[in-house]
Amino acid sequence: MTGMTDPSGIQPPSDGDLASAYADGSLAGPARAAFEARLAAEPALREQVELEERISDSLRRSFAVSQAAVATSVLNGAADDLAAVREQAELQERIDSTLRGVFTVPDQPAAAAARVPGAGGGSTGAARPFLTRPFFARNARWVAMAASLLMGVMVVAAVYIASRTGPEECPDEPFLELSTAYVTALEPGFSPQHGWNSPADFVEAIRVQFGVNLRMAQPPAWLQMLGWSTAGTAGDGALKPPGTDKPAGSHGRSAEHAAGSAQGILSPDTMTLYAKSGAEPVIVLIDRLSADRDMPLARGSQLVKHRIELGGLVLYEVGVSEKAVLLDRFGLR
Amino acid sequence: MEQPSGAPLSRDEFVVRFQASRRTLWCIAAAVLGGRSQADDVLQEAAVIALAKLDQFNPATSFTAWMGQIVRFVALNESRRRKRHGTLDLEAANPTAREPKPSAPGLSGRGELLAGQQLFDDRVMAALNTLSDTARACLLLRTVLDLPYNEIAAALDIPEGTAMSHVHRARLAIRERLVTDENGGKGGQA
After folding, report:
1. Which positions 2-61 of A are in contact with B (Cβ < 8 Å)?
2. Residue A279 is nearest to which of B40, B105, B178, comparing CB atoms?
3. Which of A248, A287, B54, B175 has the fewest CB atoms within 10 Å, i.e. the most exposed one?
């Protein structure tokens, strides 16, 4: 039917048009039914539709990553982000206002009075702020951004200085978030303290650590199980910041704090399971539910986190897969 | 020039509307940029600009359309800035340089083998980037977000028929490009 012209002179849709409309969902009613009947009988047509569907799937895949990134780094934190945006805009307004006040040059003696509502003054107009129109009106935004940047640098410096101080100044919040935990787990060679033997061994370790009886299905062959690390026994598998010998989160802090915030991402008892899905490392953090807190990923991170609760435990899987590859293998015994 | 009518949008109202439109706006930014790289930054900058111009928004009109215009403007500026400074979007220029896919290598979410999926995705991205900004935006809003055509038209401030036409022609162009690539020929046209 491709390319045929009916007696009315209107060219009917080509198979490509129909395949596109079908994939788009805009082919409806009898036309859809007729097209589906053709699909069943014409492999070439079916191939076109399948290609359309593959293209759609590909687009969703490619842009779903970004959606996830937005969802985790921006959407979930939209209130914070937008609060920051609002603060920035408010700061800009304050700076504008200050600049106008500071650089206002009265063009006649009564100008100041003229700016006061209700004041006479006899001015032909409000005082024109000095430099405001030609320069600052155009550049106030950059001035505001520069000021924000300066403030940001000062905050970073303050945080850095605070991190170098003694344990009495350590904040209570754990230092690591999930992305850092993931990255730092890779740094020492992604080598856990305990090698992997079997799911039974691992759930036994969980039982010893937390007193909870879990079961774990045998992982498939494409999942390479490496082993696990437990907190409080800092060894080769301890999470450390890249390029340092200190456990992550220590940064000159006390040993107690380091232990609590490095391997013990949620608490000093956190267990970390190490695996590889193909070439991609996957970690699972396990701790008591009572130690759970909001575990964010770094802003803009392409990592994906999955979370389940089992028998009073919380399990976080961190990796690049949109679907959990390890968590669904756990259950209660 | 259209004059605002009614009470101006408060900042809190802006936040609510911005959140509601965020996915659509993100898709528009990604479409204009030709990839997801820096779409978040563009959105952030657009939000700052919009907040500064909030008194110019007419609450009786579509917020998404108004915000969409700002996002497109900012994204176009960013795109031009990249060209001016000779900076390349690695994703668009070399799709294989992309960050890892959110699925286990060689496996779908259902554990099925997907041989050549990465290559196929790269070809689709390359074909996508031969389209116009508007066509890309229409296609992404339709395919990724499943938006109805009237919403796509509203978001991009174009007629509904134009949005449909863009999506249809974009699909055909990508398919044609893929088939041409498959046959070892030169790419198709946008």
Report:
1. 16-17, 20-21, 23-24, 26, 48, 51-52, 54-56, 58-61
2. B105
3. B54
CB contact under 8 A, B102 and A63: no
Nearest-neighbour CA in chain A from B105: distance (Å): 6
Q: Are A322 and B109 in contact (CB < 8 Å)?
A: yes
- Closest-CA residue of A relative to B24 is A67
Q: Which residues pair with A275 in a beta bridge?
A: A225, A282
The one-digit pLDDT tens for each residue of chain A (333 residues) are 444 444 555 567 788 888 888 888 888 888 888 888 988 888 888 888 888 888 988 888 888 644 444 444 444 444 555 566 566 666 666 666 666 665 555 444 333 333 433 333 333 333 344 334 445 555 667 777 888 888 888 878 777 766 554 443 333 433 356 666 776 666 656 778 888 889 999 999 999 888 999 999 888 888 889 888 876 443 444 443 333 344 433 333 333 333 333 345 777 788 889 898 877 788 898 988 888 877 777 666 677 888 899 889 999 898 888 888 899 889 988
Q: Touching check for A280 and chain B: CB below 8 Å?
A: yes
ipTM of predicted assembly, 2 dp: 0.77
| Shortest CA gap A68–chain B (Å) | 9
CB distance from A146 to chain B under 8 Å? Answer: no
In the beta sheet, which residues pair with residue B35? none
Q: What is the dihedral of CA A136, A142, A148, A154, to 10 degrees?
A: -100
Contacts of residue B175 in chain A, CB cutoff 8 Å? 16, 20, 48, 51-52, 55
User: Residue A57 is encoded by which pair of tokens?
Assistant: 């799937």
Tokens, residue A312: 């009073």
- Measured CA to CA in angstroms, residue B166 lies from A25, B129, B162 at distances of 15, 14, 6
Q: Which residue of B has its CA nearest to A326?
A: B104
A179 touches chain B (CB under 8 A): no
Going by C-alpha positions, the residue among A69, A314, A139, A250 that lies closest to residue B38 is A69
Q: With 0.95 as the threshold, say if the pTM is over it.
A: no
Q: Pick from B44, B101, B140: which is nearest to A85 by CB?
A: B44
Secondary structure of chain B: what % helix, strand, coil (to 5)? 65, 0, 35
Q: Does A73 touch chain B (CB under 8 A)?
A: yes
Identify whether the C-beta of residue B187 lies closer than 8 Å to the C-beta of residue B130: yes
DSSP A44-106: HHHHHHHHHHHHHHHHHHHHHHHHHHIIIIIITTHHHHHHHHHHHHHHHHHHHHHHHHHTB--
Contact between residue A55 and residue B124 where contact means Cβ atoms under 8 Å apart = yes
